[in-house]
Amino acid sequence: MMHELPQIAPKILRTLESKGFSANAKWTLAGSAGSGRKYFRVCEGEKTAILQTNASVGEDFEHFVSYGKSFSDFNLPTPAIWAVDESAAQVLMQDMGENTLLSVVVKDGELLQANARILYPATIDALIRWQESSQKFFLTRADIAARRFDYAAIKWETDYFRTNYLQKKMGISEIPQAVENFFATLACMVDTHPKILMHRDFQSQNVMVCHDSEIGFVDFQGARRGTMFYDIASLLWDPYVSLPEEMVQDFFGDWYDGYTRCHESFDKEEAWTLFLQASLQRLMQALGAFCFLTMEKKIQSFEQYIEPGKKRLLRVLELYEPLSPSRHEAITFLKASLTQP
Predict the structure, then answer these.
(1) What confidence score (pLDDT) does residue 2 get?
(2) Closest to 227 measured CA to CA, from 257, 170, 265
C-alpha cells in the first residue's frame, strides 16, 4: 500500500529517526475515518508507530493534538503524541495495536460472546477511570469544560436525524409537531443530566484492545463536558456490534455499580431512565450519520449499518415509551418510520 502513503513531513521523519526507524521501515495503511483522516502504521523490527494524516489543519486536528497531550498528562488511556507537523496536517503517535473492540468481539458478522464478556467490563473500567478524572481534568483544561454538550448541541443531533433519516432517507416531508416537541423535550432532559468529561464518540471502532487486553481510546477530538450517560449509551447500543439486550443490561449494571458518582446520585431504576434518554440521543445521531455518510458523502461502507441502527433505536423507543406516556404520539410516529423498509 505504499502508493497510498503521502509525503511524510520532515519533522515527522526526524522524530522517527530519533526513535530508531530507518528508511527501510515498512509502511501499511492502518485505517481511515468518515471525516477523511487516514492512519498509517510504520514497523521496523519490534518498533511500531502510527501516522495520522488529515486533509487540512482544522478544529478537529487542533483539538486532537491539544486534547491528546492533556489526556496523556493525566494518564488517561489515549495514545502518546510524539510529533506534530501542522503544515502537513500530520501527527505521529504511539501505536495501540491493530485490534479494535469491534474486530475482537465480532467475526464474520457474528458476536463472539465470550470475548465480549471479557472485554466490555475492561472497557467500562477504563471509561469509569476517564469519567472519574473529570473534576480534576477540567481544572487544568477550562476550555474543554467550557465546550458544553448543552441544549443547542443536543438538539442539533435530533435535527440531524430528522434531516438525514426522516426527510432524506425516508422521504417524510412533514414532521408532526408532536415529534418536534419530543425532540426539544428530550434535549432539555438530557441537558439536565450531571456533567462529566465526555468522549462523545465512544463506540467499538474507537476502543483499542492493546497488549494483555489493556484498553485504549482514539478519535477523542470531540471530547467536551456533558451528560454522564452518553458514552456508556454509545458503547452499549453501538450498531456496529448490536449487543444482545441481556448484555446491555448486564454491562449497564457493571457501569452503574463501578461508577461511584452514579450509584451515589441515583437508584438503578432512575439511572436506567436517564441512560435511555441518552441512548435515544446517541442512536438518532448515529442513524443520521449513517444516512449522511452513505447518501451525501457516498461512503457506501456505512450503508450496512443503517438497518442495525434502526433496530437499536426502535428497541430503545420501546423501552422508553412506558416511562414517558405523554410522548406516545411522537414515539408511535418514530417507531413507524423505523419499521418501514
Answers:
(1) 46
(2) 265
